Amino acid sequence: MRALVINCTLKPSPQSSNTEALAGTVITALQGHGVEVDVVRAVDLNIKPGVETDMGEGDDWPAVHEKVLASQILIMASPTWLGRPSSVAQRVLERLDAMLGETDDEERPVAYNRVAGVLVTGNEDGAHHVISEISGALGDIGFTIPGQAWTYWHLGPGPGPDYLDDNRGHDWASSTGRAMASNLVHAARALNAMPLPAPPS
To answer: Which residues 6+ apart lie within 8 Å of 57 measured at CB?
Structure first.
């Protein structure tokens, strides 16, 4: 089984990323279930605006799209900015939107029988809103969202330290991340054993 984590931090490599650090705990948990994990740091790529799988010359999204199709688990990881997903996360969701028009050999939307989860960091509240926005979009595209397939970290309202600068809340975020990983893996196995059929015509 394969998983893809799309890190939607605004910080290009090699800057440290709080979102990447928390994602590392979920990646470790997935690997403990025997899952191979690939990570894409979207801000490092030239992901053009649009809602097509390939927006032409210089567009790096088609390679990411192939990684999505090669995976049974997708995790969107985003910081919270102004109480909302990052602009990079929005760009990724818009490009994933193209999957609505893609079907497999059995006429199923290509996102069917893949599971997805959400991971959020931020030094102020808004995590549940970000989780809801991203989960809702992924569900629209056709991904299955298991119960409690998320984790987040923040330190309450107002500005404050970052995930990498403060150990408070790490145990809870990691424990929730391990549950997230387990729920994603077991839901993916269930869908593999009994796949969703094509939508009724």
So the answer is: none
Report if pTM > 0.90.
yes
Q: Which residues contact 155 (CB under 8 A, 6 or more apart)?
A: 123, 124, 161, 166, 168, 169
**First and final CA of the chain: distance in angstroms?**
31
Q: Are 14 and 114 in contact (CB under 8 A)?
A: no
157 has pLDDT over 90: no
What's the CA gap between 149 and 181, in Å, rounded? Answer: 7
Asked if residue 58 lies in contact with residue 103, where contact means CB atoms within 8 angstroms, the answer is no
What are the structure tokens assigned to 64, written together?
Answer: 């990411």
CB atoms within 10 A of CB 101: 11
CA-based max dimension of the chain: 53
Q: Report the alpha-carbon distance of residue 103 to residue 157 in Å, rounded.
A: 43
